[in-house]
Amino acid sequence: EAQVTQNPRYLITVTGKKLTVTCSQNMNHEYMSWYRQDPGLGLRQIYYSMNVEVTDKGDVPEGYKVSRKEKRNFPLILESPSPNQTSLYFCASSWSVGATNTEAFFGQGTRLTVV
Amino acid sequence: ILNVEQSPQSLHVQEGDSTNFTCSFPSSNFYALHWYRWETAKSPEALFVMTLNGDEKKKGRISATLNTKEGYSYLYIKGSQPEDSATYLCASNTNAGKSTFGDGTTLTVKP
Asked: What chain A residue is nearest to B32 in terms of C-alpha separation?
């Protein structure tokens, strides 16, 4: 089954304790992206990757890191989480960003609370 | 327009009504426009990807149009059903991969 898998689904952590949210896709997609969603706002892009070893900042990259060492995985790293990073996070993947047959697939979401 | 804007913010209709929403986006650096359907407690689900001016896409009772010159897209739902209740998101992508979402239009269809 084609899917994007995020882990964990829920996480409560303390300020300053490094954490990683994993994202894996089994569709051989080139493009992967991380978003956060806060109440009343749409999805905001954190980082994206056009292919292996190619990553770029989105609109809200501060406080986050990513890596794309292999095509299927795109982990999101919070080196020193702060309460303002409490949010709902989504990972997504697609073949590319613009081809008409390239719909995006989203993971199940990770609800992160930083206290 | 600097950001992606969606209107209205929310919409309440009766079952059987037809409805439409608007997505406005910057026409410069435009590469693709995506529409998603997002139900509560689920993940966004892709509806359409459009790239060419004048594009029209259709999936069942839902259709979308694209005007890249003036920077807008319309999403239409014909004969709304309660199961159409969801938040509809649009996103504008550049060819470099940057993706900007609107805040969404939340549709509630009353039986």
From this structure: A98
Name B50's Cβ contacts closer than 8 Å, sequence gap at least 6.
A100, B32, B33, B34, B35, B57, B64, B66, B73
How far off is chain B from A103, nearest CA to CA, in Å? 6
Give me the amino acid identity at B97: G
Three-class DSSP labels, A42-84: CEEEEEEEEECCEEEECCCCCCCEECCCCCCECCEEECCCCHH
CB contact under 8 A, B93 and A97: yes
- Give me the residue from A42, A58, A102 closest to B49, CB to CB: A102
Give which of B90, B77, B79, B72 is closest to B27, Cα–Cα.
B72
Query: How far apart are the C-alpha atoms of B91 and A102, rounded to whole Å?
Result: 14
Chain B closest CA to A106's CA: distance in Å? 6
Q: What is the DSSP string of B15-53?
A: TT--EEEEEE--STT--EEEEEEE-TTS--EEEEEE-ST
The yes-or-no verdict on residue B13 having pLDDT over 80 is yes
- Which pLDDT score is estimated for A96? 75
Residue B48 β-bridge partners: B35
B50-91: per-residue pLDDT in tens? 988 999 999 999 999 999 999 999 999 999 999 999 999 999
Q: Does position A100 have pLDDT exceeding 60, yes or no?
A: no
